[in-house]
Amino acid sequence: MNTAGNPEKARRWLEEARSRTPHHSDGSILGSMTTAPHPIGVEAFKEFIHVNGNDPVIYPVVEEASRILIEGVGALLGAEHGIHTSGGTESNILALYIGRRISRGRENTVVAPSSVHRSIDKACLLMGCRLVKIPVDPLKPVDPGVLEEYVRKHKPFAVVVTAGTTEAGVVDPVKEAGEIAEEHGVFLHVDAAYGGLLIPFLHRRGYLAEDLRMYPGVSSISVDMHKNGCAPIPSSILFLSRRDYIEEACFEMEYMPRGRSCGLLGTRPGGAVIAAAAVFMTIGAKGYEENAVRMMENALYLHENLSHLPMITSYKPILPLNVFKSTIYTYEELFKALLDRKLYVYKSPSLQALRVVVMPHVEKAHLDRLINALKSIHGV
Ligand code: PLP
């Protein structure tokens, strides 16, 4: 066996792989909560690709970037403290880990509506805690009265609600959940991985009644920068209501310059946090607000057009996320038919439907292509 390196072969493979890998700019990626990273993010990521985000002593720029993000995004949510993580899943696991560390005398249980993201199941599996799900209509937020009943009955150490659910964009009642958490002494984590950079703007612009803040009783909020923040993957922020909660997320690591490491990962892409900060600075709150409005208008455009198709049921979007189904094909069949046409949507299994997430890169022309494909599949 020839074990010599073969740079030519590697290049050929990369070139060939590039030619068959879809890109957001071609308009085919319509279901994923990812988007094309902003060019300054790509530049920063490349420039700082060698930086270990776990070593703020050699690389103080990592802490600077983290501060820029926490102050900037935190200002939108009334949050002051936080930690940069490598995505919504890490943020959710870390939030529950912190919640369990600070809980005293409560059951090893987490309560969450059934619409919660699967990473909460993952966190509970990893931590060996029981996850009690409140059955909810996937198109509706959890009822605060029912949430309180579950908290009374199960005495959880943590409650998780979602501000922008994965399958339907539903916004749970964060303020009311905060009141319940405060009254019962429970850690409340708000998963705003998807909605964190949409809800404050869409609320202000009159598209949405709910707002998102670090309300009294809220302990943590996660916001993904690699979703609507237009930052390169992987990038998320876990906001915490108290500075000392950050300590609970730190682990002894004697050989490191500071003797410890905060967050779940060890060596991690420092370029990602620097890139996210550069993107946030470049776009600014005003730019994110304009993005949110444009995305929402596009989602309403898609809904309007789908509603006119006789064999499609389309649900009115709450956030820029469209859910629709066919009256003649199962959602799995329709998924496959779109996949065959190189249109990549995702599924909303709880609604037996498909999901389009109108991310910053999605243009009306891309949506028109989808509408035309649906017409042709249904013979309209
Ligand atoms: N939370 C919500 C509400 C999500 O929609 C997602 C992903 O879509 C996540 C968490 C997990 O994020 P990530 O894929 O970045 O780990």
Automatic annotation (TrEMBL):
The modification N6-(pyridoxal phosphate)lysine is found at residue 227. Transmembrane segments: none annotated. One of its GO terms (biological process) is carboxylic acid metabolic process. It holds the Pfam family Pyridoxal_deC. Its cofactor is pyridoxal 5'-phosphate. SUPFAM superfamilies: PLP-dependent transferases. Residues 8-26 have a biased composition (Basic and acidic residues). GO terms for molecular function: carbon-carbon lyase activity; pyridoxal phosphate binding. Residues 1-32 are annotated as: Disordered. Keywords: Lyase, Pyridoxal phosphate. It comes from the Archaea. Belongs to the group II decarboxylase family. Sphingosine-1-phosphate lyase subfamily. This is Pyridoxal-dependent decarboxylase.
